[in-house]
Amino acid sequence: MSQPAPNVDELVRSIAEETNTPAETVSKMYADTLANYRNDARVFDYVPLFAAKKVRDQLRHHPDNKH
């Protein structure tokens, strides 16, 4: 049973608000991270959740990584 896909706009908006980062930056980081995870994944069910977590963690712990 696969996970429902997250609403990407809502997810990006949430991460942007939590980390005080422009939505455009979060959107780009999320898309890049998601693409990287999808390249190596064998099971895709949780890939969007892992990508969101990685972006959120990067912005929280390394705020100077904002592109």
From TrEMBL:
<dbReference type="InterPro" id="IPR021945">
    <property type="entry name" value="DUF3562"/>
</dbReference>
<dbReference type="Pfam" id="PF12085">
    <property type="entry name" value="DUF3562"/>
</dbReference>
<protein>
    <recommendedName>
        <fullName>DUF3562 domain-containing protein</fullName>
    </recommendedName>
</protein>
